[in-house]
Amino acid sequence: MEKVLFNGKIIDRGKASFSFDDRSMYFGDGVYEVIRVYSGHPYKLEMHLQRLQRSADELDIPYSIKEKQSLKKRVSELIDTNELTHDGYVYIQLSRGAAARDHLYERHIEPFIFAFTKEMEKPTAQQEQGIAVYLTEDIRWLRCDIKTVNLLGNVLAKRQAADHDCSEAVQHRGDTVTEGSSSNLFIVKDGQLITHPADNLILNGITRQVVIDLAEKQGLPVSITPFSTDELLEADEAFITSTINEITPITEWRGTKHGMLKIGAVTKQLQAELQADIERTRTGE
Ligand code: PDD
């Protein structure tokens, strides 16, 4: 029977019952993380847990370093208990907790945390062949740096993309490209890698950070600067990054602008570098 982490305890999934009054249901009042697991080993767990803590701090949800340490252990236990020995991911959600519905939150509410694991194949075909993406206006709030479960702008953008036979939506605020509905975005122009700064308009993706680091180690010039939808259409290469998609090349733009792209050498080089890093996790390095 599949187990889940439920407020510090590992229990049967069927026995996990949520409070009717959980604030994540009424207000989207909670934060989350998605962590990839390769051959049973969580990838960049510490970075994800640090981001969870930052998200909680930004939302004034009490979550201590001590809890973070025990969560780290529990996540590994959950992976082992569910025998997630192949590839998959762990989803963790931290909600402000349960209280009678009121916009005003009280600070004594007990936060509620749960996690589950899921098996998942690597999206190899997309990574090799590339994807079409749909350009759409970014309608989200101004704190996209917080990984909250309130994802309505993102889910509407993803639906719009799917309705146009695209795998991902690429959002822009006016002329400035921000990020995907569940990924970050990079373009390559004249050998230079360009991505939006990690400010309030995007989520500072863990994969984004890993890719920037790998690129710099390879001596690839990286420019962390906003770019326009026109620059995106004139890019030599483009790709999205995320925990789920790793590095996935973009081969077509649809939506507010149209265009086609080839999968280029920089994208392939970074894909190879990321795979090498993932292999180190697989072997428990
Ligand atoms: N989403 N931007 C947004 C809006 C995202 O939702 C995500 C990830 C990313 C990439 O972040 P990371 O590299 O840390 O996965 C960027 C996850 C996978 C999700 O919501 O399922």
From TrEMBL:
Transmembrane segments: none annotated. One of its GO terms (cellular component) is cytosol. The keyword Transport does not apply. Its EC number is 2.6.1.21. It is an enzyme of class 2 (transferase). It comes from the Bacteria. PROSITE patterns: AA_TRANSFER_CLASS_4. Signal peptide: none annotated. GO terms for biological process: amino acid biosynthetic process; carboxylic acid biosynthetic process; D-amino acid metabolic process. Keywords: Aminotransferase, Pyridoxal phosphate, Transferase. It catalyses: D-alanine + 2-oxoglutarate = D-glutamate + pyruvate. Its cofactor is pyridoxal 5'-phosphate. Homodimer. Belongs to the class-IV pyridoxal-phosphate-dependent aminotransferase family. This is D-alanine aminotransferase. It comes from Salicibibacter halophilus. The lineage of its organism: Bacteria, Bacillati, Bacillota, Bacilli, Bacillales.
